[in-house]
Design goal:
Elements (H helix, E strand, L loop, with lengths): L12 H14 L3 E3 L2 H6 L13 E4 L3 H13 L4 E4 L14 E4 L7 E5 L4 E5 L4 H8 L4 E2 L12 H7 L6 H4 L6 E7 L5 E4 L1 E2 L1 H8 L4 H15 L1 H7 L12 H4 L6 E2 H4 L9 E8 L1 E2 L3 E9 L2 H6 L1 H5 L5 E6 H8 L17 E9 L2 H18 L4 E5 L2 H12 L1 H6 L6 E3 L13 H14 L4 E2 L1 E3 L4 E2 L2 E5 L3 H20 L11 H4 L3 H5 L1 H14 L21 H4 L17 H6 L18 H6 L6 H11 L5 H4 L3 H8 L6 H5 L6 H16 L3 H7 L1 H10 L11 H11 L15 H15 L8 E5 L4 H4 L1 H13 L3 E5 L6 H5 L3 H18 L6 E2 L3 H8 L1 H5 L4 H9 L3 H11 L14 E5 L2 H6 L3 H8 L5 E4 L18 H10 L1 H6 L6 E4 L2 H11 L3 E2 L1 H8 L14
Parallel strand pairs: 2-4, 3-4, 23-24, 23-25, 26-27, 26-28, 28-29
Antiparallel strand pairs: 1-2, 5-6, 6-12, 7-13, 8-9, 8-12, 10-11, 14-16, 14-17, 15-16, 15-20, 18-22, 19-22, 20-21
């Protein structure tokens, strides 16, 4: 298969196979040497790509030791890796990658008395903070990638984040490290006094040589150390000999290796300090007419003792408005600012924080800074602000087009904030002179702006420009006494310049440090010292031109289907846990290939093969795509909008071309017909779901999980009810509609299994003055699409779109109650038939039924009872993934909040795990339930019996009942329970 990364692996062929066999024998963890696994780990969030020899997933420190020993015997370098979110290329290399995030992610102990945590280095920062929060503690460094960045990665990088003004950097919070050295020996690094250092220095071991040689290097280079390090304190560059040279401090190897990027040791456990978690946070958001004006206001902000001062420019603001996930920000801003300055105040005394914000507002007004200051005091007021701020990197990346991307190569400089306005002005002059544009965001409070110029690395001239800019900025930051790497590290992007930055003597001292720790140069070589050129190993230059491929779906991006997959820039947001829906399968398995990033990279590899059509039929690729639930969360939550559901559907269709369509896929693709027949044959059709022998046969023959309850068919379905209802309405002489005519889409699911939902919606719409016509003759094709039956889905889309165009009034609304079906008309139909005028017409007329009902309540056309059985109840709402991805849940929440007397909470419980047919399939049942158990089931089970559970999706309701034995209502059912019927004087129901 084609190797598409620039760097070649250290060994190959029989030697690599022998190494893999040895690792499988000696490790308890997993070993991956196949082409796809190697490709997935050839990339991180940087602009680089180097194919490794293989990947191991250690389960414990002894696995790490065994991997280091085996690699040493084969002369293979080692590349330790956490979340793979490095922006400078620290976690790619030609050796053996050690992914410490999959299994080595346990919090071993939190000692609230000592304010410390003992963790394995694969623990994620937010995971640690969630565990420490009940004790009133947290880990001080606060990276924007806190929901996926591992503690080990932060140690390797010396990460800082927005709170570094108050909490410093990771190096300031590390007490002890359990590490594996380059000779495969284990060591505990911690501060020692001179007596203990001398005792250890006498040992004839590699560890002993560290205690012996490092003091010698420090003494021999004391002058160079004193003079060679940049003046500014916020440093994530070079080896920290300056720390070793401090008088009256203990000899501390634990702190010394922080920021060494895996080039000296591999850390397996860490004892870190925790800090008190402030009880309150308040944010003042200054609105400015230019980025320069915002930066000028930083000095006044710092005078008010803030916890952080963050900048966001128009580029990111405009991009946030285009994404449903972040669109709420624009509703709270004043006017159309060109830049925002977020000034955070944290502490335990609300009055002090409010006083700080008032002092800032007064200072800015006095000095003419900005035109408005928003004060976000409560967590609800802050949520949209913080969500966008933490996603600035991803949003900026989304501005790229094709191979023209905002790249990280001068994004990590920092100067004293007093110099920031002038420094930024000259920085922009450099970019202007070279014809480059860039997005600006970052940490004004510590003089660090993440400025990422847009560069096309497939253009040799642009590569030369990139290097020329890097050199000029390196010189510029030095002129201001700043640092070239302030929190993202050196990696492949900046290590090349370290000799010039630190000077010959200090650089040679650092090379001696590397030699002492790693005599054979096997620990992540090429980073910090003895690095290749920053223009070697570039990812985009290594990709061959994409071969022509006819796709059934439309991919409206530069580069077609491969371009759609290659939009992923590996920032790893899909590896988060504990919030949002993306990516449910990764949350269940913690396996890189089960993340959106992993699947996108796998598709890039397949689509770069000489015969991409055949490559899409590869079984290993099929395995990687298999656990994608097609929830579409990535379409909205991934800042770059990588739409894996569409990519998987297209890929499955090519797999079917080569291998045929499985019977089960054909059955699920015909779910409307199956459900209609089941309704006609009810109640006999419900027997297979109750008879265990029949369920076992379905499991064996079709792969339909016997543990999963089957839907219960209803003989009097929505279609038969509506027929009788329409006749009764005609006979009763109902008042003429006042709102016109709309079409209610009888979906393929609730129509035959939960017809009460459709009945409730239709009755409410008629009460609201609408003439409702029921359309039950077509299928949207959602089920076919989910099984890769794209041609069938296209036929169904064409038939339904044209049927609706021909039988409905122009411009009239089309509504429904099942989000997956309704949203298919808005989205997938346009990808199936991009040039069909009927599809465009219908997609623009789709409305959520909740929108129309909210309008009716607000207009007084629907009157709701104050004394319904719902009054005083808590409603717990779980939104459907497709709804959240396409239109959001605001309309549903608005509808529920209009029911008198209720308290509504929306769950942040991610995907339910059912995902249509996915949860019915035997091989997926366990993952489906694991996804539900992550957050949804515990949240529902924690509620008292009187809480009413609400879910818009049929799959969600099925999963909630199966996992918790709690019924979930559709929102329209609840509104129907609360509505005041004409001539009625009593509540409509007593609940169920």
């Amino acid at each position: 298969m084609t190797t598409i990364s620039s760097g070649a692996p250290a060994i190959g062929g029989a030697a690599a196979e022998d190494l893999a066999h040895r690792l499988r024998r000696e490790l308890d963890g997993d070993v991956g040497f196949d082409d796809y696994t190697r490709h997935l780990f050839s990339r991180d969030a940087s602009m680089y790509a180097i194919t490794p020899v293989g990947v191991v997933f250690p389960r414990h420190a002894d696995d790490v030791r065994a991997a280091v020993a085996a690699a040493g015997e084969y002369g293979v370098p080692l590349v330790p890796r956490g979340a793979g979110t490095s922006l400078a290329g620290q976690t790619v290399g030609p050796g053996l990658v050690l992914d410490l995030s999959r299994y080595m992610n346990r919090i071993l102990e939190i000692d609230d008395g000592r304010r410390t945590a003992l963790v394995q280095t694969g623990v994620v920062q937010d995971q640690l903070n969630r565990a420490a929060a009940p004790l009133g503690l947290m880990f001080g460094p606060d990276t924007s990638t806190s929901n996926r960045a591992t503690v080990g990665g932060m140690i390797g990088n010396n990460s800082a984040g927005s709170g570094s003004l108050r909490y410093g950097m990771t190096i300031d919070h590390v007490r002890e490290l359990d590490v594996v050295l380059s000779d495969a020996s284990r060591a505990l690094l911690a501060p020692v006094d001179e007596v203990e250092r001398a005792r250890r220095a006498a040992q004839p071991t590699l560890e002993g040589s560290l205690y012996k040689r490092l003091p010698q290097i420090v003494r021999a280079n004391s002058e160079a150390i004193a003079e060679g390090f940049p003046e500014f304190w916020r440093r994530a560059c070079g080896y920290r000999l300056d720390r070793m040279a401090r008088p009256d401090t203990p000899f501390d190897l634990a702190k010394f290796v922080v920021g060494s990027e895996g080039t000296l040791v591999i850390a397996t456990e860490a004892l870190v300090d925790l800090v008190p978690k402030p009880r309150h946070t308040m944010i003042a958001v200054g609105h400015f007419t230019s980025t320069a004006a915002a930066i000028e206001a930083t000095e006044d902000a710092l005078a008010c003792d803030p916890a952080a001062v963050e900048l966001m420019d128009r580029t990111i603001l405009d991009l946030s408005r285009q994404k449903i996930e972040y669109a709420s920000l624009s509703t709270i801003l004043e006017g159309d600012p060109d830049a925002l300055l977020f000034v955070s105040f944290t502490g335990d005394d609300k009055r002090e924080l409010l006083a700080g914000m008032e002092r800032l507002t007064t200072l800015w007004a006095r000095h003419g800074h900005g035109y408005h200051t928003l004060q976000a005091i409560t967590p609800d007021q802050q949520s949209s602000l913080l969500k966008v701020r933490k996603s600035s990197l991803g949003l900026l990346m989304a501005a790229g087009e094709g191979t023209r991307r905002p790249l990280a190569f001068v994004e990590d400089t920092a100067v004293d904030p007093v110099h920031l306005p002038q420094y930024t002005k000259r920085f922009k002059e450099v970019l202007d002179r070279h014809g480059l544009t860039a997005g600006f965001y970052g940490h004004c409070s510590v003089g660090c702006l993440h400025i990422r110029p847009f560069v096309d690395l497939t253009d040799p001239g642009q590569v030369d420009t990139m290097r020329a800019v890097a050199v000029e900025i390196k010189d510029l930051v030095t002129e201001y006494g700043g640092v070239n790497s302030s929190e993202h590290g050196d990696g492949l992007a900046r290590s090349e310049f370290n000799r010039e930055i630190f000077g010959e003597r200090l650089y040679e001292a650092m090379r001696q440090v590397k030699q002492v720790f790693d005599p054979d140069n096997r620990m992540n070589p090429g980073k910090i010292v003895d690095a290749p050129s920053m223009t070697d190993n570039l990812r985009d230059r290594a990709l061959p031109p994409a071969e022509p491929l006819r796709t059934r779906l439309s991919f409206e991006v530069v580069g077609g289907m491969r371009g759609a997959a290659d939009r992923c820039m590996n920032i790893g947001l899909c590896r988060k846990s504990g919030s949002g829906a993306m990516c449910p399968s990764y949350m269940a398995t913690r396996n890189e290939e089960d993340s959106t990033r992993g699947r996108a990279n796998a598709l890039v590899k397949a689509l770069s093969e000489p015969d991409p059509r055949t490559a899409l039929g590869d079984e290993r690729l099929h395995e990687i795509l298999d656990l994608c639930l097609m929830c579409k969360a990535c379409k909205s939550e991934c800042p770059l909008g990588v739409d894996m559901a569409t990519l998987k559907a297209e890929s499955l269709s090519h797999h079917h071309d080569l291998h045929g369509v499985p019977l089960r896929s054909r059955i699920f693709g015909s779910i409307r017909l199956l459900n209609r027949l089941g309704s006609l044959a009810a109640p006999l059709s419900n027997l297979p779901g109750r008879l265990r022998p029949l369920r076992r046969l379905l499991d064996r023959w079709l792969g339909i999980a016997s543990e999963r309850p089957l839907p219960v068919f209803v003989r009097r379905n929505l279609v038969s009810w509506f027929r009788k209802h329409a006749r009764g309405a005609a006979a009763s002489g109902r008042p003429a509609p006042t709102q016109g005519t709309l079409t209610f889409l009888a979906d393929s699911f609730t129509t035959f299994t939960e017809p009460d939902i459709g009945r409730s919606a239709i009755e409410l719409l008629e009460l609201a003055g609408w003439q409702v016509r029921l359309e039950s003759r077509g299928c949207c094709g959602r089920s076919s699409l989910s099984k890769g039956l794209v041609d069938d889905a296209k036929d169904k889309a064409f038939a339904l779109a044209h049927l609706l165009t021909e039988t409905t009034e122009p411009g009239s609304p089309i509504v429904g109650c099942e989000p997956s079906c309704l949203m298919t008309l808005r989205d997938e139909h346009k990808a199936l038939l991009p040039n069909d005028s009927a599809v465009k017409d219908i997609s623009g007329r789709v409305r959520q039924v909740e929108e129309l009902l909210v309008e009716a309540v607000d207009d007084g056309r629907l009157r709701l009872r104050e004394d319904s059985w719902l009054a005083g109840r808590r409603l717990l709402y779980h939104g459907h993934c497709h709804q959240k991805a396409e239109v959001g849940t605001a309309a549903t929440m608005s509808l529920l909040n209009r029911i008198p007397g209720v308290r509504v909470s929306e769950l942040d419980a991610g995907c339910c795990g059912m995902a249509g047919s996915f949860g019915f399939e035997s091989e997926h049942y366990e993952v489906s339930m694991t996804v539900g158990q992550d957050r949804l089931f515990p949240a529902v089970e924690a509620e008292p019996p009187e809480t009413v559970v609400v879910a818009t999706g049929v799959s969600c309701r099925q999963q909630i009942f199966h996992g918790t034995r709690r019924d979930a209502w559709h929102p329209v059912q609840l509104l129907r329970e609360a509505v005041e019927l004409p001539g009625s004087s009593s509540p409509s129901s007593s609940g169920r």
